C-alpha cells in the first residue's frame, strides 16, 4: 500500500499554494482492540494543512497501529474526517503512505518504472509496458529528486533512494494527509537529511498535512510544527519544546532536559516551556 488512496477524485495538477492552515483532518476517539485489549485507545487529533505533526512514543506505544487504523487496514472505533479550506469537499481524506521499508526480492529485475506501472493497473508490467505512464512517473519522481532512478532496478537502490521512490508513489495523486512511518529507518545520514529537506519543501508546496513517526529527536525539533506523545493514548500534545519537556515524555524515555540538550534535540530555554 504505497500510493495515495483517492477517496475524492479531483484535479491533481495544481499545487495548493502556501499554507492556509484552515483545511483539517480530524481523528475522533479512535480505538483499536486486539484480543479484547486496547492497543490504541480514544485517540483524538486535529491535523491542519501545511503542518507536520510528529508522533512519538516508546516501542509498543501503538504508533504504527494508529497509522494502519487511519489507513483503514485495521478495524477500529471512532472516526476520520476531512474538511477543505473552502468548505467544498468533506468526508474521508485522500491519504498517502510511506512505510518503514518495502519487502521484496533484492535480485528481482523489477524497476522503479515497473513499480509505478504496477501501482496504476492490474496487467503484468512485463507483458504490457506503458509508455503513457513514463512522463507522469518521471515528473513525480522529479519532485523528490529521483527522476534519474526511473529505469533503475529496485534492488540496486540505496536505502535513501528507495524511500524517495516510495515517497513519490505516495504523492500520486497528491494526498490530503501524508503518513510517514519511520521513513528514514536504515537510511544513512546524508540520505536522511535529503529526505527531510524534501518533506519540508513538499509540505509548503502542496500545503500538506503530515503525520511523521520518528525517534529522531533532533530532526523533530527542526521539522515538526506539533508533537504528539502517544503511549496507547495521547499523553501530551503541543509544540516540540512543550512535549519533549513534558514529565511523562521524559520518564517514558528515561531522559531529562539536560539529556535532550546533549542530544541536540532541544535548543529552547526552559522558561519557554510550561
Observed structural traits:
274 residues, alpha/beta, 23% strand, 10 strands, 9 helices, six-stranded mixed beta sheet, disordered N terminus, disordered C terminus
Protein described:
- Helix 4 runs parallel beside helix 5.
- The longest helix has 18 residues, at 189-206.
- The model is unreliable at 1-19 and 267-274 (pLDDT under 50).
- The strands form two sheets. The chain has a six-stranded mixed beta sheet with strand order 6-7-8-3-9-10.
- A hairpin with a 2-residue loop joins strand 1 and strand 2 (37-48).
- By secondary structure, the protein is an alpha/beta fold.
- The protein has nine helices and ten strands.
- It has helices at 63-71, 112-120, 134-142, 159-170, 189-206, 217-223, 240-244, 247-253, 257-263; strands spanning 24-34, 37-48, 51-56, 77-83, 90-91, 95-98, 177-181, 209-213, 226-231, 233-238.
